[in-house]
Amino acid sequence: xxxxxxxxxxxxxxxxxxxxxxxxxxxxxxxxxxxxxxxxxxxxxxxxxxxxxxxxxxxxxxxxxxxxxxxxxxxxxxxxxxxxxxxxxxxxxxxxxxxxxxxxxxxxxxxxxxxxxxxxxxxxxxxxxxxxxxxxxxxxxxxxxxxxxxxxxxxxxxxxxxxxxxxxxxxxxxxxxxxxxxxxxxxxxxxx
Length: 192
Hints:
Blueprint: H1 2-10, E1 15-21, H2 27-43, E2 47-52, H3 57-67, E3 72-78, H4 83-94, E4 99-100, E5 103-104, H5 107-114, E6 116-123, H6 126-137, E7 143-148, H7 153-161, E8 168-170, H8 171-191
Parallel strand pairs: 1-2, 1-6, 2-3, 6-7, 7-8
Antiparallel strand pairs: 4-5
Helix pairs in contact: 2-3, 2-8, 4-6
């Protein structure tokens, strides 16, 4: 979790792409992880772009971003096409693109995609996490952080050990500890 906090601090003032790759049935556990990470991104002054390969993930992203005070966020919406869609997204991160998944991108969204310096993947399934890492990470040198369910934690830790993930928050207990750690660090900074 410390690695996550350091990566978010390093992204201060830049854009982070947050992928909501979980269905509503997993929202009870992953929403707490999402809110903890989004709050830290807001505190660091990062702008957030959200995207989901689940159609139902789009409203989850909208609800989570609306719940975080002071968060500057924009949604890219639903990204169809699984690996193909992720490769198209990755190409937009590496170079300016006019369209993504058949939709025209405004100049503002094109600039925001070009500014992405950090990716956060919120996932409940191994396949979603692996697909993001295989099709975005391999195309780009942008650091990827994971926010996963507690049950996916052991699998995600293998990606952390191989340095495909730059940090990991797994499940509600770690999200709660992470939120407490961020608050403690903010208090320590204010005292100095």
